Amino acid sequence: MDVPKSLIGLASHFIGECFDCGKPLLDNEVKQTPPVTRFITAQLYIDNVLTGESILILLEQGNFWDAEILLRTVVEGSLKFIYILEDQDCAEKRAKEFFHVLTGYSSIKRSNRLESMTNKIEFLEKDSKILNEIIISRDEQELFRKDTNKADRKSLENKWSFHGLLQHFSKSEDERYRLFEHLSYQYGMASHLTHKDGDAMGLVWERSQRSAEERKAVNTSQTARIISDLCQLSKWRLHFLFKSQSHSLEPIEKLNDKYKALFDDLKDLNNFNPDDFT
Questions:
Q1: Residues 4-43, buried b or exposed e (16+ Cβ, 10 A)?
Q2: Distance between CA atoms of 262 and 59, rounded to whole angstroms?
Q3: What is the DSSP string of 77-135?
Q4: Rounded to the nearest 5°, which phi and psi values hold at 105?
Q5: What is the dihedral of CA 170, 175, 179, 180, to 10 degrees?
Q6: pLDDT by residue (tens digit) across 239-251?
Q7: CA distance 249 to 256
Q8: Do residues 128 and 176 make contact, with C-beta atoms less than 8 angstroms apart?
């Protein structure tokens, strides 16, 4: 059977309720959180929810491969959200690294690529004006670099990469953080789909060669798993947001009870067994 659209709707409500539970802790009135930390975590929180809704829309249309690509961004965005809030003593420093330091490095790379392009291609005057606003001077580039060298900048970029974050969490004494390493499978598969490489083409082609009955069963299982992952990531973001503010976890427990039928149905649907088709 297909995943009923009613379950996709329920998942949307669940994600929305997780957002509503966490929103008060990200408002400007929360004075104990430094402004930059509050701003960045709020934006990551919102962006992950909005992308989650886009994933559900794709699943409604049966576009589960494209949904996997977007899920990859929610996985990475959720990890970054959790990493910033994981240690309150480091939260402000990490937020500044994420929003100021790393974006400065990106601005330099973007500027250099654009400068090279504008030197080789002649643009209309109005387009040139827009593009030139993005190019930053050598003095500005030095301000972004400050006293760092290329190795320093690469090290920081690696630290904030998906695999860098997984490596960080894998060293934690808290078993909840070590569970994040299991996200690498979905991330890796979605990376193939993102880059349209040979593995991605093989995945899609192999699925198309199965019998109609088996294809429907595995598509249903995949869709249910994507929805389950989205809901779990929503719970994780809310859990670690509450934990960072020493907030009671009772609202999460209530949500688990309220949406138990959704999670049970998703578990039943995510049950593809290849032995059933041999």
A1: eeebbebbbebbebbbebbeebbeeeeeebeebbbebbbe
A2: 16
A3: HHHHHHHHHH-TTTHHHHHHIIIIIHHHHHHHHHHHHHHHHHHHS---HHHHHHHHHH-
A4: -60, -40
A5: -50
A6: 999 999 899 999 9
A7: 11
A8: no
23-75 pLDDT, tens digit each: 999 886 666 788 899 999 999 999 999 999 999 999 999 999 999 999 999 99
CA triple 165-168-171, angle to 5 deg:
150
Question: Please, where are the H alpha helices in 149-211?
Answer: 150-159, 162-170, 175-178, 184-195, 198-208
Residue in this structure with the two tokens 């957002």, named with its chain if needed: 19
Three-state SS at 202: helix
DSSP 3: P
Burial class of 55 by CB neighbour count within 10 A (0 to 12, 13 to 18, 19+): buried
Q: How far is CA 254 from the centre of its chain?
A: 25
Read off the tokens for 250.
């009772």
How many CA within 13 A on the CB side of residue 12? 15
Output DSSP code: residue 161.
S
Report the chain (278 residues): mean pLDDT per 10 consecutive residues.
Answer: 88 97 83 86 96 97 96 97 94 95 90 85 78 83 84 94 94 84 92 96 95 93 96 96 93 97 94 81
pTM over 0.70: yes
What is the rounded distance in angstroms from the CA atom of residue 219 to the CA atom of residue 1? 10
Distances (CA, A) of 26 to 16, 23, 76, 100, 241: 15, 5, 20, 20, 9
Question: How many helices (H) and strands (E) are present in the chain, helices listed first?
Answer: 15, 0
